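Quick illustration for those who missed Monday's session on complexes.
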Amino acid sequence: MTGKKNIAIMGAGLVGSLLSLYLAKRGYKVDLYERRPDMRTTVIDGGRSINLALSDRGWRALRGIGIEEQVREVAIPMHGRMMHDEQGNLSFLPYGKEGQSIYSVSRGGLNKALMNISEPNPDIDYHFNRQAIDVDIRENKIQLRNTETGELERIIPDLLFGADGAFSAVRGAMQKTERYNYQQDYLEYGYKELTIPATEDGGWALEKNALHIWPRGNYMMIALPNLDGSFTCTLFFPYEGERSFAAIKSETDLHTFFQEAFPDALALMPDLAEEYFGNPVGALVTVKCFPWSFEGKSLLIGDASHAVVPFYGQGMNAGFEDITVLDKMLDSMGDANWEALFKAFERRRKPDADAIADLAVLNFFEMRDKVADPRFLLRKKIETKISAQYPEKWIPLYSMVTFSDLPYSYALDAGRQQDKIMKKVMKHIRSIEDYEKPEVQKLLQKQLVEKEKLK
Ligand code: FAD
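Prediction with flavin-adenine dinucleotide bound:
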C-alpha cells in the first residue's frame, strides 16, 4: 500500500493506458476498466488494421515515460504527402524540414504495446470486459457490467479518470450536472477503411515513407503504410449525394467509381468489393465540452473531453499531450488539492483542445480541396522559403501543430496571421522564382514587422 489515493481509469485505450504509467510512476495504485476484451488475446475491430499518424506531441509523452524507443521500432516514418491525380501521376510535398516526419503506427499495435509495458507494474491492474453503465458523479460510484457474464459490480475509487473516448460514459454523467456545456458536430462525411495488400514478395506496393492522398474535391482517400507491407486506406466520402456512400449500391457502381476516381489504387485493391461492402462506415464527430472535472473527484482526458475529426492526425497526439501537461502540473502544484489541480488543468487545456478541433476541420477542406491545386502547392513552396529565410519569425502552421509543442491555440492564431500575409504575398507570385523579386521581399519584410508588433 502506498497510502496514496486509489485511482480508477475508465477506458484502457491509448490515453488511458499511457496515463496509467504516468500515475503509477508517482506511486498511485491504478485500476483500468475496459469494456472490450483484452485485445492481446482476442481479435477485435473485425481484424482490421487502423493506423494513426504519431507526431512530436505524442512522441514527447512517450519519451516522458521512457518508452519512445520501444514504439519507434514499430513506427514507419512518413516524410511527406504523396498526391495521386486521376491519371495516377504522383507529386510529393514534404511535411516539414529535412528530417521532420510523422509516423504511421497501428492503433491496436500501439495499444497492445502500452498494455504490455504497463501491465507488469504491480501498481497497475487491467480489468477487461468491464463496461461502466452507471456513473454517480457526486459520490464517484461506478456500476460496471461484466460484458461476458452480465454480472454487475460497483467500484468507489478516490479519483476517477474518464479516458473512455468520444462517447464517454463518465462525461455522460457530468452532462447531467448543472450548467454543463456540451456540443457535438458531425461532418456530413463518413469514412470507410480499405486495404492495399503487400506485394507478393512482402513489399509495399506504393512508396512506403509517405502518406498517400487521392484528393478529389468533394471527397478523398488516404493511405498509411503498415509494417507488414500493406497500406490501410481510408475513404472519406459524403453520406448522401451523387457521389456518396448512398450512391454506391452494387459492385458495378463501386468498380465504375474507383475506375474513374482512383484508377491507380483500384489496380492494387484485389479485395475492394468484399471490404467495401463488409466494412462499416464510421462517423466523424467533434466533441467540445466544459468543465472536464467534477469537484476534484473526476477528470475527463483524451477523446472523452475533446474528440476531433482526424484530418490533422492529432486526436491521439492531443490526448497524449494532455498527459504531459497534467504531469507537469502535478510537478508544480503537487497533489494536495486535486480540485485546484483539475480546475487549473482544464482551464489551461480547453483553449488548445478547441483550437485543434477547429484546425482539424479546416485541414479537412485543405486536404480535400486544395492539395491538388497547383497554386496551393506553389504557396507551400513559397512558405518553405519564407520559413528558411526567417526561421525565428515564421513557422508554417502545419509545422507548429505537428513538429512543435507550441500551444495549439497559439498555432491557430499565428496561422491566421500568416495566412493573411501569404494572401498578400501570393498576389505577386506566379512562379517560385518570383520569391526573389525585390517587391516581394520588401512586402514580406514589412508584413513581418507588422506581425511582430501584434505579438
Ligand atoms: P479511445 O481510443 O476511443 O479509447 C477509449 C477506450 O474506452 C476504448 O478502449 C473503449 O473500449 C473504452 N470504453 C468506452 N466506453 C467505455 C465504458 N462505458 N466502460 C469502459 N470502457 C469504455 N489521432 C492521431 O493522433 N493521429 C491520427 O492519424 C489519427 N487518425 C484517426 C483516424 C480515424 C479514422 C479516427 C476515427 C481517429 C483518428 N485519430 C487519430 C484519433 C485517435 O484515434 C483518438 O484521438 C484516440 O484513439 C483517442 O484515444 P482515447 O484513449 O482518448 O480514446
